[in-house]
Amino acid sequence: MTISINKLLDLRITKRYSRLRFLYIILFTFSIFQLACSPRPNIQGKGEAFMQGVWNEDSVAFSNKLNNYTQHHFKITCDSIYIDLETHSKVNFYEDSCYNNGVWKEYAKGVYAVKGDTLFVGATFTHANYKQKISGCYRIGRYDKNFLIKSKTSDTLLLESLSDRREIKLSLKEKVTCVQKEL
Q: Transmembrane residues, as ranges (predicted)?
């Protein structure tokens, strides 16, 4: 059984093309991963222009009839959010040393994003100085909340919590200009 020289050459050429095709596939895949995994700039995101500022919830509807309620204070700068929560409670959920006559403050710091009509907040509970809190009274860990943006004007923001359906009417107290910082 003899193999002709032409067939032998065809087999060698086919092997080379297979190797080249494999090499091209590897290079193409590597270049796609390189583009997809390129590092993001080491700078804070811009956030939403209409959200920039200090926002206060001046009052809570029907607060005199509720067993507990929380007033919100947001400071939003670029894509960062600083949250002060003042809770009023007629019911003690905590140790007596933490109850503080039914009024206490909690703090959180994190980032936010707006997608369509929804505000997504991803934050961590902190101390009053916005340094991470890992123990103590009240909540620790993550503060992850989603809000429906029901309406917005230049000085009013009406949110509805998607977890408990409570409305939060925020008034703009101070406009903030985003100055992006390095991370």
A: 20-36
